[in-house]
Amino acid sequence: MKPWTVRDVMTRRVVSVDRGTSYRNMVDLLTEKRISALPVIDETGHVVGVVSEADLLRKIEYAGDEAPRLFDGPRRRDERLRSQGRTAADLMSTPPIVVATDTTIAAAARTMHREGVKRLPVVDEHGRLVGIVTRGDLLKTHLRTDQEILDDVRTGVLRRFLPEDEATVIAAVVDGVVTLTGTVDRWTSADIAERLTRQIAGVVDVNSTLDYRFDDRQVRGARLGFGTL
Question: What does the chain look like in DSSP terms, one character per residue?
């Protein structure tokens, strides 16, 4: 079972600009291409910043209000200063938050949430821009059919990791929700089945009522030094 990465869902034809691109040209690009942000790259293709709609809107927000105010915080003062910019270099957000092509979908989603961004430029092993991934792109994993998910459960989880229990486990998928029933040999096997199934692209939730013949949690704890004295 191969985890989905941003490579599987990213947009490869990226509209980018250089540091000298003018404000008006960037507005034209965002409008014409119906996109919400532009990666800014240097002469070698490395991402040096990102200009978003929010960055460009500061010019409207602070129009006629360029003088700093007494109670402005550092962030507010920086935004007001940047609103006076004319080029991508003046307006872009830095440092850019980027991800590698082999970043998992889950890791990309966590990065977006942590950094408060709606898209991430994707770079290759040399740090050059090769794509861009948005929140909408990450949701593409949930366009997978129930049958595709079921096939991954059977071949990528049960057959690969629990071959001895495969015949006694029944898996079903409805609207992305996986149900696991039946019996496995050990508690560990039931735990593995549920955890790995949750990692399959497109899985909304897992309902597992797997029974087990032997509870090996105490044995595992003793091996790790957690046994009772």
Answer: -PPPBHHHH-BSS---B-TT-BHHHHHHHHHHHT-SEEEEE-TTSBEEEEEEHHHHHHHHHTTT--S--TT--HHHHHHHHHTT--BHHHH-BSS---EETT-BHHHHHHHHHHHT-SEEEEE-TTSBEEEEEEHHHHGGGGGS-HHHHHHHIIIIIIHHH-TTTGGGEEEEEETTEEEEEEEEEEHHHHHHHHHHHHTSTT--EEEE--EEEE--HHHHHHHTT----
